[in-house]
What we know:
heterotrimer, A: alpha+beta, eight-stranded mixed β-sheet, B: alpha/beta, Rossmann fold, seven-stranded mixed β-sheet, six-stranded antiparallel β-sheet, 7 helices, 29% strand
Amino acid sequence: MTCASAFILRREDLVPLLEELAETLEVVAPVQVEGEAAFATWRGEALALDDKNPLTSPMEFFLPQKEVLFRYVQYSGRYTFSEDPPRARLIFGMRPCDLRALKVIDGIFGADLPDIPYAGRRRSTIIVALNCTTPGEGCFCRSMGSGPGAEGGYDILLTDLGRGYLVEPGSSAGVYILRAHHRHFEEADPGDIKEKERLLALAGDEIVTRGPSLNPEKIREAIDGVDWEEAGRRCLACGGCSLVCPVCHCFSVLDQGVPDGERLRCRDTCILSGFSRMTGGANPRAALGERLRHWYLDKFVYIPEKTGLFGCVGCGRCTRVCLGEVDRWSLFKEAAE
Amino acid sequence: MKMDRSKMGTVAEGGTRTGRAAGVKPGSYLPIQAEVVDIDVESSNTYLLSLRPMDEEDELVAVNYSPGQFLMVSVFGLGECPISIASSPTREPLQICVREAGRITQGIMAARVGDVLGIRGPFGNGFPVGSMRGKNVLIAGGGSGFATLRSLINYIADDREKFKEVTVVYGARTPQDLYFTSEYGSWQAAKIEVGITVDMMDASWKGNVGLVTSLLAEIDPSPGAAALCGPPMMIRAVAKDLLGRGFIEPEIYISLERHMKCGVGKCEHCTMGRYHVCTDGPIFSYDVVGDLI
Amino acid sequence: MEKIATICVYCGCGCGLFLHVEDGRIVGASPSPAHPVSRGRLCVKGWLAADFVHHPDRLKTPLVRKGGRMVRGSWDEALSLTARRLKEIMEESGPDALAVLTSAKGTNEENYLLAKLARVALKTNNVDHVARLCHAPSVAGLGFALGSGAMTNPIRSLLSADAILVTGSNTTEQHPLIAAHILEAQSRGATLIVADPRRTQMAQLADIHLAPRLGTDVAWTNGILNLIIDMGLVDEDFIIERTEGFTALKDLVVQYTPAAVERITGIPPGDLKKAAVAFGEADRAAVVYAMGTTQHSCGTDNVLALANLVLATGNVGRDGTGIYPLRGHQNVQGACDMGALPSVYPGYQKVEDPAARERMEAAWGTDLPADPGLTAVEMMEAAEEGRLKGIYISGENPMISYPDRDQVMRALSSLEFLTVADIFPTETTALADVVLPVASFAEKDGTFTSTERRVQRVRRAVSPPGEARPEVEVAADLLRRLGVEADYASPEEVMAEISSVTPSYGGISYQRLGISGLSWPCPSRDHPGTEILHQGSFPIGRARFSAVEQQELAEDLDYPLLLTTGRSLFHFHTGTMTRRTHLLDRERPKAAVDINPADAAALGVRSGTMVVVESVRGGIEIEARLTEEVPMGTVYIPFHFAEAPANQLTARTLDPTSKIPCLKRTPVRIRRADS
Lengths: 337, 293, 675
């Protein structure tokens, strides 16, 4: 293998490559579950790479819906604690929008006092990203600057060129994997890079024509003009928007078990009133409208202040899951008009 | 366990943001274990617990904090909640003041001497005692918010000559709800003016009745730095009163209380606009949070 | 991580979801994007559906009462004791001294085997379940009017409706995914009419909100029909070709003039007219109702009145039309289908019908009792009177969910023998002689049948905790111990037997149940299932109108307020699962009685004040919550909370036809707890 920076993986070599990787790592990839792509441990089944990005983001492999922070065992009044080590994993087919979300979360969970469980998973996970040439209907990553092409943050980047995948390493771990499995790769030629750029430009145009066209700056300005009380009236408080958002990271912590048991961390949502309610009953964000407003302010004002990146990656999942038929982005169009 | 006095005392200036004390891995959710060594009853629903870290490597936690910081306190099986530190780093032992509010606080209060609690921290910024030095200091508390102020008061009392006039005003609902009554004398002995008031008096009460602001009118403190903790209504009234007396917004420090799960700025429960009360606070100056409380 | 496709355990919507499993534990859940109901969405309970599964309180070993205390026992000990005691009681006091209460949380296979246990092993028709307390009036009323008590149309049919009348249903909280369909229809242009005394979120979002007094549903329904007839908006062709009894109804409803209706219900004539015009003029109109309609002493009449309305306007048998009794449990439809009812075998074949009985006797190879058995509430009476001596309860908690808690307590305590199978300890397991730990929905294979008659696969995602077993195995084991052949290798084999004896399930097999399941009737292997009922004809030939009249409502000056009960978005039923789900319990940690601020002012009560709510049955202490959601004169208590059990107050007043108790209208009085 030469020191070239781009390679071609033939389509028929993809599964053999994954099989080799799966010998040492847990390989997570989009597979079909009941008619739709979902990220799950790959066990040789057909890959669902051509479908739209799964409804549940692979961010769940970094911030699980539920995890054991530690176990406690009591013995004559004192406790001993145990924690599980992170798993060695390879996530295959992560899209640029989710990759951007990871970068945002790095700026929150990886910064100041790094969150140890997150940092552990981050270190033990290899990311093979897939440039997005098949955007979904509600996607608007281009408006948020997070897609359809990935810019860094991956170990290996793939682009489906039809005849095969263009493969570009993005880290030393990526280079190492390409070297170790070099027999599957051949050097790419400049035409392949051009083809990648052409496909991404095409996908970008498709997103703009098909999906909502939103300018984050405009959204930020429009937040104060939205009638949040009215939006809150239709919200059915399912919390789905937070639970599918790859950037949402609120959590709660609880203990289960006496005298021995587990301290669990579970995903939470600021849409619920109990999220901010204090034990005494006082609630700084008592109304549903206020909580919805906070959800947007966090993504468009506070997270950018903290991380330099918008807290929305344009994946469109929150609109897909909204039970109250709140067309989440038309709120801002109305406010802007 | 013997503690080296030289490790104690004047330590952390206000503004340490973190729990980087010895024994606590930053960002870890594993608590250290602390034994309850003493329990005082402060009021019918409030106990003052003295804690001692059980492992020698953790002992610095007991002194390496500043007034206004808080701990995440665990009762294994019930969970973890934020509790402000009521002791001063200048004095042993480490103390927390717990008022019965929910399941976890009930669990902490059910602890007996010798029982083990989990603690993480200290967290939060603490009062900026450095910038309070050389100034008049007014400390105003209401209800259970007085616990965190007691840390500051004892800290100042142990370093009294560095501060100018120091005044404490404190109000509770009834005389039975007043905390730390046995210490008022020692504060006065340290030349701290102490004013106490209650909302509802009983037969035994000879002192003031009314709001904390009525004490301010009586004492007429000179402008300087102020430290406030209590219910939002009281905070707003006291801050307004102080501004009228020539105190300035950036020097009125308010300790805030919020629902919290992590203490390290991740879980988002305590957000107040763009601020995390756990890491940006819990002490905020009035110019920052005046319109948010 | 695996993603296992299964069905939600809470309400009757029957949403498809994935359980995320890692190292034998459920670490998350998400909606199934291709599922016809969830369509990639879930309510808050759905997102958290599996949160309770690994809770440390789960029952993990069988418990047997010894010397007044519950001690650990083996499965063999627990089951042989159960079999022996049931047999002894049968021999001493006859089969009708025994009863089985099955569970709407169980699978079809479990319900089938438990109903079979009652009829074949114990020789009694004393088998019932929680449907008695929810849709018995629908089974009776719609069964009479249309020939089937089930929802006529699939949920997605609501998307094509031009007008939707929702009554007695707090849809956004109790059936959020159906509410989402209704709101989607509304945003596409359908008119939403909500009739509910409370200003629920649904009522607030409605185009027309009618707020009748509690218990006056027949009056306003007849009133709307009267206006529709008056305006010539009835579907005459449909009435002539497909129904009977219209003239008698027409003669009756003329009395229900808008002015008369206003006197009874308090609904302004203008609003009634608006509703009648919207419903009558719609090309496709649908009626959606739930417990607010059925849980009355006139529950069957309420259902019949609504059936009149859809029949008179020809709104049956087409997409976008229909009548939708919303089922509250994920498998209460299936439990009814499986014959877990005292009067019917699987597929609603009547036990009194000799031909049906002969068929079942041939299939099950034994003689079967001919008389219908006791209903759930009648069982409690019989137990109290000593006629009923032994009960097997599967996953029900009558101590919280049944009316008149004190009586339930007396009834269950006076039994000679009680076995309860459940996933958590409950107020009812506390009274049992044997407690059997069983698998939760995430730990077993089988099928659930949703409110829209959709039979769907439930899949085992993780193992049950400790020694807990799927109840389908427990039921088969008990059958064998009672001398009945029951060698099922898997739930799939039970389904094969179900489809062989249940005509409407005749074509259902696990292989055929894909993402969308199959809607019954599905009589044969090549039948595609039936999403819309009554398209060409009714099972009874012609549909029947019923001239139902509004009952006189008794008033009690000592108890001037009316209590209505229900559920909250964040809890389910008696809370055994949701109160062990961290985020749900945090959202609604305690009970509260909703009081209108005007009533509260008169009582000197503020939000947070502790009050005592009293009826003739008893009293409970509970926190007050002031809200305009309840009208003056009405108060509301969710019944989830054991520490403030709303059913301490409710009475056993039964609907004469369906034997449902009146849980939705109880006269009460309120005072401050400190007075």
